[in-house]
Amino acid sequence: MQITSYTDYALRVLIYLAMSSNRQTTITEIADFYNISRNHLVKVVHQLGSKGFVRTTRGKGGGLSLQHPPEMISIGEVVRSMESHFNWVECFDPAQQHCRLLPGCGLKQLLGRAGDAYLQVLDAATLADLLSGTVTVELPRKETSDNLK
Question: Is the pTM of this model over 0.90?
C-alpha cells in the first residue's frame, strides 16, 4: 500500500501545524522547513482547507492553523480526503479491467482486504498519536481453525 507525495505533504503540513499550535504559520515557512516546493504546497494546503482540516487567514498576521485539535483529526480521514482513488491494481478500476485473469483471480479480493486493513489502521490513529510518537493500534485477529474451536 502506498500514498502519493501529495498525501505525504498533507500529513507533514498537519504535523507541522500541530507542533506550532500556539501560533500562525505560513506556507513558505513549512516549505522551507521540509525543503519542498512552495507551489506544490499551496495546492495541498488549499485542499486541506477546503476539506476542513486547516484554517487559513489572509493578510498581515494571517497564516495557517489547524481547524480542529490534533486528537480530533483522523489520519484515515486525511488520507481518504487527499487520495484520488484506492485502485491498488488495474482490476479495481472498472474502466481499466483488461486483465486476462479476471474473473477467476483472487488477487483483487486479497488486495481489497489488505487495503481495508490498511485504512482501518490509519482510521485508528489521530494527529495527536503521530505527535506523541507512540502509535499503537490493535489489529483484528485472523481467524484460524484454533480460534473456531
Answer: no
| Cα–Cα dist 49/72, whole Å | 16
pLDDT cut 90: percent of the chain above it: 52
Q: At CA 77, angle to CA 96 and CA 82, rounded to 5? A: 50
CATH of the structural domain 5-132, one choice from 1.20.1440.170, 1.10.10.10, 3.30.70.940, 3.60.40.10: 1.10.10.10
Structure confidence at residue 18 (pLDDT)? 95
Alpha-carbon distances of 11 from 52, 58, 92, 128, 143, rounded to whole Å = 14, 22, 25, 12, 33
Smallest CA-to-CA distance from 88 within 117, 62, 67 is with 117
Spans of all domains in the chain: 5-132
